[in-house]
TrEMBL record:
Presence of the UniProt keyword Glycoprotein in the record: no
Molecular-function GO terms, alphabetical: ATP binding; hydrolase activity; lyase activity
Span of the signal peptide: none
Domain Carboxyltransferase, first and last residues per copy: 27-306
Superkingdom: Bacteria
SUPFAM superfamilies named among the record's database cross-references: Cyclophilin-like
Aminoacyl-tRNA synthetase is among the record's keywords: no
InterPro entries noted in UniProt: CT_A_B, Cyclophilin-like_dom_sf, PxpC
Keywords of the record: ATP-binding, Hydrolase, Lyase, Nucleotide-binding
Residues forming coiled coils: none
UniProt-recorded name of the protein: Urea amidolyase
Transmembrane segments: none
Origin organism lineage: Bacteria, Pseudomonadati, Pseudomonadota, Betaproteobacteria, Rhodocyclales
UniProt cross-references to Gene3D superfamilies, sorted A to Z: Cyclophilin-like
């Protein structure tokens, strides 16, 4: 076992340490925080051999640069990202969705995120940070978790207990981008809106505004008309709640959002689709579709089954990147027969 560390040379647009979140404290006003896309966290951790909910680095839109000290340190990037590995000053591309070993002095660089989304996750084997209220997740507004309760910044050091053993792994089937509408369940204050507003929500186009972060996403589009008062006595919210303030422009709450609020909530984004919404870029157009609660539950079960299948299909890589399981599963040479099989002997073959 090897004591090592990762230094943040550049945090990019925004990077933070996150895990599954800080559960069980919303009743006292502590948000979950945690990764915006749990599937990425689970895949990245599986690639490096961590428990699936181990703390990871979540980043947006590229620019993150990490430096290994005292390696070897195994890392993996999950997400539709352009990744580079710098060794002895020489940069070379590194595919995402696989693990690799960083030696002392190597750099991992996420140059940019592609059209598939704006979130990537970096798993580090043996990342060792203390928990606060049962979680390592960074909630910067309350200075909780992560490194000093803050988003990552240049010069921060992340301690690692790295084994430096075993082989690297690859995800055999990359998740595909789903372009379908974002599904919602109406309520809990749908009765605070006119019938026209409910129809508009599921029929109109909405644009992701520039006011989009880990707390929530403000949408731009047709105003949603309140049927009565534009505010309510503050009550509970959850990630996925769609609040509608007085201007009628909806706000979708995400992991770092407050635990209660005074704007009526017209609907809630289902858990299976919330990561897709969180990954949308400013300027992107989306639509909503209404589903029943039982359909949302079925979608959650399907999403979990798909994630489990992806993780179960992760396979070892040879040091040069060859996936042996894939190689052996394909008939590389066809039409080969045994020369001594009577049914395949040519006419000129001598009789026994």
């Amino acid at each position: 076992m090897n004591a090592a560390r990762i230094e943040v040379l550049a945090p990019g647009a925004y990077a933070s340490v996150q895990d599954r979140g800080r559960r069980g404290f919303r009743r006292i006003g502590v948000p979950w925080a945690g990764v915006l896309d749990p599937r990425l966290m689970r895949i990245a951790n599986a690639l490096v051999g961590n428990p699936e909910t181990h703390a990871v680095i979540e980043c947006f839109d590229g620019g993150l640069v990490l430096l290994a000290h005292g390696g070897p340190i195994r890392v993996a990037v999950a997400g539709d990202a352009v990744v580079e590995l710098e060794v002895a000053g020489e940069r070379r591309p590194l595919p995402p969705w696989r693990s690799t070993m960083l030696a002392d002095g190597d750099q991992l660089r996420i140059r940019k995120l592609l059209a598939g989304g704006r979130i990537a996750v970096v798993a580090i084997e043996g990342l060792a940070l203390p928990e606060t209220l049962g979680s390592v997740s960074t909630y910067a507004r309350a200075v909780l978790g992560g490194v000093d309760g803050r988003a990552l910044a240049a010069g921060m050091q992340l301690p690692v207990v790295s084994h430096g053993e075993g082989v690297d792994r690859v995800l055999r089937h990359v998740p595909l981008t789903d372009p379908s509408p974002i599904r919602v369940v109406l309520g809990p204050q749908a009765d605070h809106f006119s019938a026209a507003a409910l129809h508009t929500l599921i029929s109109a186009d909405y644009r992701i505004s520039t006011e989009a972060d880990r707390m929530g996403i403000r949408l731009e589009g047709p105003a949603l008309e309140h049927a009565g008062t534009r505010e309510i006595v503050s009550d509970a919210t959850v990630p996925g709640s769609i609040q509608v303030p007085g201007n009628g422009q909806p706000i979708v709450l995400l992991a770092d959002a407050q635990t209660a609020g005074g704007y009526p909530k017209i609907a809630t984004v289902i858990s299976a689709d919330l990561p897709r919404l969180a990954a949308c870029r400013p300027g992107q157009i989306l639509r909503f579709a209404r589903v029943a609660a039982f359909e949302a539950e079925e979608s959650a079960r399907r999403a979990e089954a798909e994630t489990r299948a992806l993780i179960d299909a992760i396979r070892p890589l040879l040091p040069d990147g060859i996936d042996l399981d894939t190689l052996y599963s394909v008939n590389l040479v066809g039409g080969v027969v045994h020369a001594l099989s009577p049914e395949h002997r040519p006419q000129w073959w001598p009789v026994d």
